[in-house]
Fold this sequence. Notes:
Oligomer: single chain
Order of helices and strands: HEEHEEEEHEEH
Radius of gyration: 16 Å
Structural class: alpha+beta
Helix content: 25-40%
Number of domains: 1
Strand order of the largest sheet: 2-1-7-8-6-5-4-3
CATH architecture: 2-Layer Sandwich
Number of helices: 4
CATH class: Alpha Beta
Amino acid sequence: MVIHVSAMTECLKRPSASIVRFGVTGMLGVLLLGPSISLSQIGASKSASADPRVRRALQQTDLKYDVDKDGDYKLHFTTEDNRTQLVFIESKTEQWGNMEIRVVRAAAYIGKVKLTRTKLESLLRDTARRKSGAWELVEAGDTQMAQFTVKMSADCDPDGLKTVVWGVARTADAMEKELTNSDDL
């Protein structure tokens, strides 16, 4: 059973949402975010505004986008084999040392049925093969989402941003096909 993206977005705003990250080294790194988590750590608040740097970069590409109510950029992709994929560029950034980091993400699975161990291992192996990015397992209540996430420089140039969002779209779409054999996301 696959759930519409907007249902998962609402679900993620619950303080009990947790994230499990699959580490690049082939080992499972677990980060559980408990009830004390700030909702801004999962997504921007409803009063958030879109980061103008992203808008300027996207305007210098041929990518079409919308801005959602959280201030994040939403891009709809159609892949070479006519499949579709939704990608989000978060406006909210975080500091890591002297670097400002932005998240680009796309879901490959959203559902109430938990992914099997075999499918989770597939995500882990896929992460290990990637030059950049990792699979994250996000859980909120009885809903689970597997999303591919790249953390990149917040000031990336337009060509770099386009490369990343297309890479995220293709990666998530291929995994969606592998996990669900559907094209819902």
